[in-house]
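User: My collaborator sent over this chain with a note saying "see what the structure looks like." That's all I know about it. Can you take a look?
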Amino acid sequence: MTLATASSRVDNIRHSLIGLKMPRALEMLDTTLRRIEQGQIDGIEALDELLLEELSLRENRRIKAALRMARLPTVKTLAGFDFSFQPSLDRNRIMALAGLDFINRAEVVHLLGPPGTGKSHLATALAVEAVRAGKLVYFIPLADLVAQLAKAERDGTLRERIRFLCRASLLVVDEIGYLPVTPGGGNLFFQLVNARYEKGAMILTSNRGFAEWGEVFGDPVVATALLDRLLHHAVVVQIEGSSYRMREHAALVPENLRANALTNPPMPKRRGRPPTKGQSDQGG
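Assistant: Without extra context I'll predict from the sequence alone. Here is the result:
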């Protein structure tokens, strides 16, 4: 092959890469050609590397867009979680959840514990794992979720909003119990939970025990109906310990507040339907 012919072929490759919208492969082309000329790699290896670079770029773009659509407040990972600070937490159990089988089984993961113990971090990290695995994820605090549903009800679009929220393979509802639920909010949340029941997975974080949900939602009947569905196919992770955020200033907090922060939410008696064979150890 003459030099002119080789140059023409390279130009054709460039035009093809532009037409195929492969910017990373185009960026790496000259470097790859030099490596071929120097005998570092052969043609097959070069083609393989160019395609891998392009696939990596596209995957990173997909993940970035999916994380944005998931509305995560921040991106946190399991690698960034300090398990040594919460020795009550079973690391192996959390890593098993990161395998995402609970999403395929449409289970509900409950992360319970005092403020600052890592519930939201874990929920976010599991959501990030789901996004990376190609799952559609939506993250929202309970107060914002109830506000969305209430607005949709006023606008006459509640059914459409619930249908939208049911599209996600994983719905993460954060901060249950931190703010009072507005009147009627418990019923709206129940409608969403009922629509997702046995169809879509959820992660719920709460600083309140299930026995307090009647107070949280302002209606014991609604709370019982919620728990009936949310505990049927469930994994309950209880986190005990002090606040990670306050670890450097714990001595400045009054003793009675420290004691309250360390109090664990009471675990409920078994509710709902009896466990099915082969279900998770916290399922029921």
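A starting point for your reply to your collaborator: Residues 5 and 236 are 67 Å apart (CA to CA).
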